[in-house]
Specification:
single chain; alpha+beta; NADH Oxidase; four-stranded antiparallel β-sheet; two-stranded antiparallel ribbon; 8 helices; 6 strands; 39% helix; globular
């Protein structure tokens, strides 16, 4: 019940304090996440912890370029849906937070002879591992933002990941800014989302 209460209070911060913490906390949390189930136990994930300020700055720059192009194309009602959540083209959190965890999914893997091998259900597998990671980090009292750039190929280039890895999402991890005004949100009732047969 304690974990459930923490998860119910979890919010997405878009501004972070600069204070840092021991990277080992993230390594331990990823250690738990890597035990997630995966299709045929292929474990099709790579977790890249980014703490280097120059890399974070470049990720922000590339993300804002991608978002600027994206915002020119999306319908007005989509923009309206995002506005009250404080979602804009500006992504200062990518530099403010002490750590980013850039999660990559494997679209294929290599055998011992360097041949391509199949991966099964990578999106589902990586999604489960990411959910487990977010739960552990929330339990540890850290604030998070799950961020999916509209175009994310730049992450492969910036972090020099191999061709079999594609970006899944960025977890921004740290302490949410005390001056950040969280938007008012509600969640659907149990009756709306739970159907018992």
């Amino acid at each position: 019940m304690e974990l459930i209460e923490k998860l119910k209070k979890r919010r997405s911060y878009r501004e972070f304090e600069s204070e840092t913490f021991d990277i080992q906390i993230l390594i331990n949390a990823i250690e738990a996440a890597k035990y997630a189930p995966s299709g045929a136990n292929k474990q099709p994930w790579t977790f890249c912890i980014v703490q280097n300020p120059e890399l974070k700055k470049e990720i922000r720059k590339q993300a804002e370029i991608a978002e600027s192009a994206f915002y020119k194309k999306i319908p007005l009602n989509w923009k309206d849906d995002l506005e009250y959540l404080n979602v804009t083209i500006d992504k200062p959190f990518l530099e403010q937070a002490p750590y980013l965890i850039v999660i990559f999914k494997h679209i294929f893997q290599y055998d011992t002879d360097n041949n391509h091998t199949k991966v099964y259900y990578p999106d589902i597998s990586v999604g489960i591992a990411t959910g487990m990671l977010m739960s552990v980090l929330t339990d540890l009292g850290l604030d998070l933002l799950s961020y999916t750039p509209s175009s994310d190929g730049f992450l492969t280039d910036v972090l020099k990941r191999p061709e079999n890895e594609k970006p899944f999402l960025i977890l921004v991890v740290g302490k949410g800014s005390s001056s950040y005004k969280l938007p008012e949100i509600t969640k659907k009732s149990n009756e709306e989302v739970i159907k018992i047969y």
